[in-house]
Amino acid sequence: MDNKHIDTKNKLDYGLTFKISRFKEQIKKTKPHKHDEYYELIFLSEGEGFHCIESEKYMVSTPEFYFLKPGQLHFWQFTSIPKGFVILFKDSQFDGVKESDLIDLYRQLSENTRIKIQKEIYSEHILTEILGEYSQNTDYSEQIIHGLLKALFGKLLQLSKNNPHKSNLPLSLFNNFQHLLVKECPRLHKVNDYADLLNTTPQNLNTICRKHAGKSASELITAQVLLEAKRYILHTDNTINEIADILSFNDASYFVKFFKKAEGLTPVMFRQKYFQ
Fold first, then answer.
1. How many C-beta atoms surround the C-beta of residue 97 within 10 A?
2. Averaged over 124-149, what is the pLDDT?
3. Is 266 exposed, middle or buried, given 0-12, 13-18 or 19+ CB atoms closer than 10 A?
4. Which of 85, 111, 167, 242 could covalently link to 238 via disulfide, CB atoms 3.0 to 4.6 Å apart?
5. Whole-number pLDDT of residue 136
6. Mean pLDDT for the chain overall
7. 96 CB contacts (<8 Å, ≥6 apart)?
8. pLDDT tens digit string along 235-252?
9. When comparing pLDDT for 231 and 89, which is higher?
10. What is the CATH class of 7-160?
11. What is the model's pLDDT at position 274?
12. What is the tens place of the pLDDT at every residue in 12-37?
């Protein structure tokens, strides 16, 4: 660990809301980083090594699929040449009214971090078609790409065996809250702050969160602050006092109590546990 801050990368050029490319075929250890307000779908057909997402370490076992949500931290440690595809997209790529079914599919899919795929049903032909349309960028290419994405998302949901329950409640407020959590946490710690930004009441925000996540808004904020804390503890050389300051705690001792209450370990003990 030699960095003070966790990098946030933006692989989408200015103005772009969608991109597909081949996975870089090189053995390279990447630094822990987050992505800026876009989803990343990764399809690996070949490769060996490890993929670390937050505090989870996955052994690469191809073929497989990874879905990273905006703001998630990850990095790679490959031991053989990887091959596959990477798809990046923002919510604004899709029409919220006309393509609500497509949006619902990828929001369901985003509940899965990793999906194992059998070699005989690996959807490389769909990905190749999407890449071809994206590269050609001719008449109706966008419509064709969206149709292929819908088929791909649906197929992956079939394979996931863990389709989230589809709620009849409006998702917009909850989704906006989730986006704000990624964007504003850890600067903001209070339910009132998020409710004000969402033009709703703390009571209504808590109700919506319990309906969709089974947890209060306060619990979700706490979980996000804790996640940010773990990122800085594990992936930077910052002192505990520095991390407390980054996470907007006025007192480092309060941060230590907060972390120990949640994890049963102090931040120093948590760091030692992973690097002993």
1. 7
2. 95
3. middle
4. 242
5. 94
6. 88
7. 103
8. 888 999 999 999 999 999
9. 89
10. mainly beta
11. 76
12. 888 899 999 999 999 877 889 988 78
What residue ranges do the domains of the chain occupy? 7-160, 172-275
Average pLDDT over residues 144-164: 84
Q: Count CB neighbours of 155 within 10 A.
A: 14
| pLDDT grade for 276, boundaries at 50, 70 and 90 | low
Pick the CATH number of 172-275 from 1.20.1050.10, 1.10.10.60, 3.40.1390.10, 1.10.1760.20: 1.10.10.60
- Which residue is listed with tokens 């808590």? 206
Q: What single-letter amino acid sits at 27? A: I
3 pLDDT tier (thresholds 50, 70, 90): low
- Distance between CA atoms of 167 and 174, rounded to whole angstroms? 12
Q: How far apart are CA 85 and CA 65, in angstroms?
A: 10
CB 238 within 8 Å of CB 246: yes
Would you list the DSSP string of the chain? ---SS-EEE--SPTT--EEEEEPP-S--PPPPEEESS-EEEEEEEEEEEEEEETTEEEEP-SSEEEEE-TT-EEEEEEEEEEEEEEEEE-GGGS-TTTTHHHHHHHHHHTT-SEEE--GGG--HHHHHHHHHHHHH--TTHHHHHHHHHHHHHHHHHHHHS-PPP--SS--HHHHHHHHHHHHHTTT---HHHHHHHTTS-HHHHHHHHHHHHSS-HHHHHHHHHHHHHHHHHHH----HHHHHHHTT-S-HHHHHHHHHHHHSS-HHHHHHHHH-
pLDDT of 118 above 80: no
> Do residues 121 and 172 lie in contact, with contact meaning Cβ atoms separated by under 8 Å?
no
